[in-house]
Amino acid sequence: MVLTTKEFREDFSKTFEGLYAFDLSEASPIQYYTALGNYLKVYSADNWSHTNQAYLEHQVKQVYYFSMEFLPGRMLKSNLLNLGILDTVRDGLREMGLDFEVIARAEVDPALGNGGLGRLASCFMDSIASLGIPGNGNGIRYRYGLFQQKFVDGYQVELPENWLRDGNVWEVRKENKAVMVRFGGQAILSEDPDGRLKPIYSQTQNILAVPYDTGMIGYQNEVVNNLRLWSAEIPPEEEIHYHTIADREKVNQITEVLYPDDSNYEGQILRLRQEYFFTSAGVQSIVRYYKQMVLTWQHFPDKVAIHINDTHPALCIPELMRILLDEEGLSWEQAWEITQKTMSYTNHTILQEAMEKWPVRMVQELVPRIYQIIEEINQRHIDKKLPLYTPELTYRTTIIADGNVKMAHLAIIGSHSVNGVAKLHTEILMHEVLRDFYQMYPAKFNNKTNGITQRRWLHLANEGLTKLIDNKIGTAWKTNPSELKLFKSFANNEDTLAQLAEIKLENKKQFAAYAEKEMGIELDPTALFDVQIKRLHAYKRQLLNALHILDRYLKIKDDPDLDIQPRVFIFGAKAAPSYVYAKQIIKLINTIADMVNNDPAIGNKIKVVFVENYGVSLAELIIPAAEVSEQISLAGKEASGTSNMKLMLNGALTVATLDGANVEIRDFVGEDNIFLFGLNDQEVYAFYENGTYHSRDIYDSNPRLQRVLNTFIDGTIPGIETEGRVIFDSLVQYNDEYFVLKDFESYVEVQEKVDQLYQDPMAWNQKSLLNIASSGPFSADFTIKRYAEEIWKTDSQLPA
Ligand code: 26Y
């Protein structure tokens, strides 16, 4: 049944009156938005409950995607799109004299994640539902999301992100589905009447885990899956034991804030609490659901797949073991077989410092029974592998070592599948980082290159481009993104190329309007828009970008009449609050921005825009306006990257090292349509092995680079005495950990080529078009199909 605008207006007005009991004409955007959200919840309620019923009735296998982080972005538009009523609602609101865009912007963007890993989880939720795969998300309902970033005098300042201030229309609190999670105390094993060892608990702290469910609406297929986020509460029957506010606070604290660090592991007990809290709650609720099906335990892996998004939820493994052993009375062997068959794990990082390992004492104290189980998993692993491998190799793979529990080892040993997130990354895992495990379990390892949902990142974010593509190749690409390649046949069509340029210009104007309004920076929309948007981290090398800007700046200062392609350098990045060096780089770039933007000799030749509080919503504004995509991490460090895919899909040309998924971008689009530079991963490894990298020598021997670096310490850039010195020293004195100086030369060279190509708009637009047309393989739909077929063994429930 198609919804008419008339029906929409009537139902919407009713919803509004029911909620607010006053005349619709005098409401605020947030009130309209809330009413719209409520309307949509009702509109999609049947689909939600039917999907649920169908899964249960047919006892289909379901996947549970466990992730500490989800970054869904605003949901109003994407829900409308997926329900197939975006245009109707927009038109209906217009007929009522309301501005849909203003209403949509009233929604908060829930920042329940740090970056790539969290956003990936949300793209996956969209694809799982859109493919009709029975799937659920499982995570934490943080009371405060990732901090809001402000710049004060160029420094990052963090403010709390109270994303629930106006309520959350999409969630449904499900008190009736709450479970109890046990912490601390003692677990003493003793024999039960059947002679089995079972734990007797004493002095534990019991926390109530209350789920909040959000419908994950599939793309025009009537499927609504579930994202379940858990919140920690005091169990009502235990209220009496909580005497002080501090006691109560300790409970609320568990789901109070998201840890804002995504690259530097710290053994904080609260984080371990969070990890056990949501994994235990999630696994318990899965088991409870399974028990409705009256099947033997052996069939558990035929009905349930649990996916562990990085090691953060790896306690799923001992938790499922605990339930099967202690509560369901299975033998160790049975429980272990079920657990391994159920679990799969994705690794997202190569950086050693981001690998989770928990002090044994901490695990013992916080979850004593879980620790016992981990110990036994470890011992059995050693007993099984020692006869087969050298003691050295075996002991390198233990879960417990040097007083720590190594979460990656637990995740690998307890899962049947281990995957990396790009071809190169998986290779590096197999042959470098996890090579001992690869030798032991070659069959577990596989690659699943990341993907993105083209629904949010093209259809919604870039309506102009969507229309153009629809006009040229039809709309089938929306459900089958490989169809995007049909767009290639327009690569020589001047008309199409001109339209493409027109759309890009329009998107650039939109961003320029934002920069003007929010930051007071005036941009020339015909300048080249160059974009680097990602977390701030030394390995991602925002510094290299900064060096290039300074190099240009000096050139223009030397010769103010220099004929050079005007460029706008756009940055968006948050730094972990404790990551001092990253914050110094933010200050540096902000100071460069001030200097350059206000220098009349520079004019429009360079503008630098560092947007505050980068997140999903800003990405949706910036990406469609981008012409150059900066993917310049040191080769071998970025697991995959996903902004690289979004930018390509929106027609940006990539400046890249051969790192992460950039390698596959090159393969799909061809060497001629990407700007490659710098060391490759093998060359980087060779330097590590030989110890022959000396950044000081490069500084000494390259006068151009020397001059750029000296601006950090010679007063050229005013007001960065401290930061300038630290950064200078890190690059020159302390041997430049991420080879910034080594790659500088080839980076500026390739940037000159970028400028040259830009002088020929048709050639540029052609490459832009080829990038769009070659980006289909990076659809998360394909990635999810592979996860479903090769790892989860879940089937789409859509009619074939
Ligand atoms: C343990 C704690 C310090 C921690 C918290 C968050 C460690 C890591 C993370 C998040 C990591 C992350 O976002 N990794 C990114 O995952 C993306 C999706 O796979 C990749 O595209 C990207 O290269 C990788 O950096």
Give a structural overview:
The protein is an alpha/beta fold and 800 residues long. The protein has 2 domains: 59-74 and 109-450, 3-Layer(aba) Sandwich (Rossmann fold), CATH 3.40.50.2000; 454-476 and 496-677 and 746-778, Glycogen Phosphorylase B (Rossmann fold, 3-Layer(aba) Sandwich). The chain is 48% helix and 15% strand. The chain contains 32 helices and 23 strands. Strands 1, 2, 5, 6, 9, 10, 11, 12, 16 and 17 form a 10-stranded mixed β-sheet that branches. Strand 18 (528-533), helix 21 (542-558) and strand 19 (567-572) form a beta-alpha-beta unit. Helix 6 (116-130) crosses helix 32 (780-792), helix 10 packs across helix 13 (368-385) and helix 21 crosses helix 28 (703-710). It is globular and about 90 Å long. The two termini are 21 Å apart. The mean pLDDT is 97. This is Alpha-1,4 glucan phosphorylase. Its EC number is 2.4.1.1.
Radius of gyration: 27 Å
Number of continuous helical runs? 32
Which small-molecule ligands are present, each listed once?
ligand 26Y
| CATH H level, superfamily name of the largest domain | Glycogen Phosphorylase B
* C-alpha end-to-end distance: 21 Å
In total, the number of strands is 23
The structure class reads alpha/beta
- Named at the architecture level, the CATH assignment of the largest domain is 3-Layer(aba) Sandwich
User: What are the segments in which pLDDT stays under 50 over at least 5 consecutive residues?
Assistant: none
* Net shape: globular
Defining key terms:
ten-stranded mixed β-sheet; Rossmann fold; six-stranded parallel β-sheet; binds ligand 26Y; single chain; 800 residues; 23 strands; alpha/beta
